[in-house]
Design a protein that fits this description.
Layout: H1 2-18, E1 29-35, H2 48-67, E2 73-79, H3 84-97, E3 108-112, H4 117-127, E4 134-136, E5 145-147, H5 154-167, E6 171-176, H6 184-199, E7 203-206, E8 217-221, E9 236-241, H7 246-250, E10 257-263, H8 271-276, H9 294-317, H10 326-346, E11 349-356, E12 363-371, E13 374-379, H11 398-401, H12 415-428, H13 439-472, H14 477-483, H15 487-496, H16 509-527
Parallel strand pairs: 1-2, 1-3, 3-4, 4-5, 6-7, 6-8, 8-9, 9-10
Antiparallel strand pairs: 10-11, 11-12, 12-13
Helix pairs in contact: 1-4, 2-9, 3-4, 5-6, 6-13, 9-10, 13-15, 13-16
Bound molecules: 2-acetamido-2-deoxy-beta-D-glucopyranose (NAG) (3 copies).
The site of one 2-acetamido-2-deoxy-beta-D-glucopyranose has 3 residues, from loops.
Amino acid sequence: MEKFRQCVIVCVIIAACTCGVRTECESRGRISLLTSIHDDAPCKKLSTKGVLLYEAAKLLAEVHNNKTNTIDIDIAVFDTCGSITGALKAAMKALVSADINCLQAPHYLGIIGPDTSTNAEAVHKVTSVLKIPHIVRKASNAPYLHQLIHESDSYLVQGALKIIEKLKWKSFTLVADVEEESDDDVQNIAKKLTMAAIAKNLCVIVHDADDEEFTSHIVHIGQPDEGFFSKPVNATIIVVSEGNLEEHLSGVNTSNTILLLEDTRDELPGLEGKVERSKWWPEDTNGKYDAEELREVRWLEDAIEVYTKALDSVCKKKKCKSSMNAVDWNNVLANVLAAHNTQSQETSQSLDLSIKSKTSKLENLGSVTVKKNAAKIHWAEEDEDDEQDDAENDDVPEAFEKLISEEKGKRTGCATKEMKMLHEDEQDTTHVLVSEMDDNEWWTMVGTVSGVGVAMFVVGILAVYVVYTNIRGPVPKNKSRIDRDTSLRRAGSDRELPTSGRTARPTRGPQRRDSNRSIRSNISEKSV
Ligand SMILES: *[C@@H]1O[C@H](CO)[C@@H](O)[C@H](O)[C@H]1NC(C)=O
Ligand SMILES: *[C@@H]1O[C@H](CO)[C@@H](O)[C@H](O)[C@H]1NC(C)=O
Ligand SMILES: *[C@@H]1O[C@H](CO)[C@@H](O)[C@H](O)[C@H]1NC(C)=O
């Protein structure tokens, strides 16, 4: 608390000192990005994501300035070092470097970040005095903190499940490299996929990093390592990624068939190179570019777009030469952001599906679109002259058809053993921060899912038993009174009224077993 007060006082002093001195404000709109380029309090440990965002911000500003015909923007990046103190320092630096006399639009547009809501709230205590807007990831009811909705990664999970379903797989090996501490995105996707697959009654074998054994069905999350494709033999591997991996996979020499499922959207041209040659990396080393963090870049891109859109709308109405009222600017921004958030909720996501069999090149098979948790595959037309069935093309391409497996229902040692393996695996990496789901939540989910399975099984047996006794033996009077209103009892009383709509209900002894069996299967189908 003391710290915030000090900050406010400092701000006021800075403002007072420079008050009255008319300075010429820059003609570009300045945006400050507060992000953790280092993510530890001593500010030593570089964050892959931070470097990516730094380079992306610089590149996005350049791209915007190349095509705009109104006002150029300038993005200054300040390192929060992942701590509250760091975030406050970064905010102060941002304000000072922007010139306190020019903190209004169109000269100063606002702040993006900081990353976490705690840090954002802390920084906001200072910046709200100056009525400076922030665009942040998490919802908040502070007047100058605006939430820009962060895209979820569940479309990748939905897309992958759709392909697995289409391939008729009953089990698969899940490979997700979580050696890197920062790979919480990959881990999140892997967890979500595991849960969703278990819920769909699939067997998931979570691959152990030291294990050299693979099944013939593999799902790999994220970009595979160089040597990965030489380990499994004659397997079908689905590679699921947010990034564009065509280049990385097209040259691979492997005995496996690779199905690549990746985000359709192009990444920023030149970003990968810029990140790898970033000034932040220690000398003589090439940095790591993580394609699975591209959703972060897209979020940043959207945030910048919201600022520039708001700026354009202001400039359209009147000449944006003079400074605007801070509250007006905040309102304009809030409106643009609200429109953007509604729109992004409604758009569907799209994934490209391509195939690479042993010797051939990567070929496009079609795409998978995911809208509100419903995934749909659109196969690419194989022949242009095939005009008749344009509306619903169910023509599965030949290359894909070949992969559809007639898997034998072998599910030995599935759920529990591999769950344990995953658990052991995670013991080594408990320090990995999983942002969207913590371990407890995850195990609770697993427990619930398996619990539901057991419960359904028991209910099913009970139902069958009740029907069985109702139909077979004489029904005791008192029991029938209890059961009168249940649907199970109704199935029984149907039998007593042969004219109730159904055709010629068998009443003879020998056939009774058949009707009995059909009801049994009805019930058990329903309950499973
Ligand atoms: C912007 O324009 C300059 C000059 O035309 C060009 O050198 C630069 O590559 C462009 N940058 C981007 C990101 O398009
Ligand atoms: C992989 O496939 C090739 C060609 O179909 C076959 O000759 C080879 O024996 C297979 N290898 C294994 C380990 O199944
Ligand atoms: C691919 O690998 C196999 C065996 O390792 C080798 O015989 C073949 O020449 C390689 N093909 C190419 C195009 O590198």
